[in-house]
Here is the input.
Amino acid sequence: MKQFIIGYVLVVGIITNVLLQDKELEESMQRGSEIYADFCITCHLDTGEGVESVFPPLAASDYLMNKREESIFGVKYGRSGDMVVNGVTYSNSMMSMGLEDEEIADVMNYILNSWGNTSDKIVTVEEVSGITR
Here is the structure.
């Protein structure tokens, strides 16, 4: 009986944690979609496909999925120089948008879970604030 109660408490705890994380991610993505519409859509388009050889795609992006820290750094501080996304080299620059760490976390959660991207781990404000120059 004791094992049953321990097992039950563990299962309920796990389910509760998953549901809370899903709600937290959903709310972050909603805020992130608004930030995306204000700051990112001009270059990366509403489909996240970007403009080949000019603005890299965010949709189904191997770079985003494999270089999480570099992606967050680029949103936070801007970036320049060559980068290869889905086999195509991009040499354009992206300036910092002046977003707060929470806004960066929200927009990253949005793009990491849209257009064929799926992230197993939510981007947190603490993760963003830990990325420095």
Summary: Residues 2-129 form a domain with the Cytochrome Bc1 Complex; Chain D, domain 2 fold (CATH 1.10.760.10).
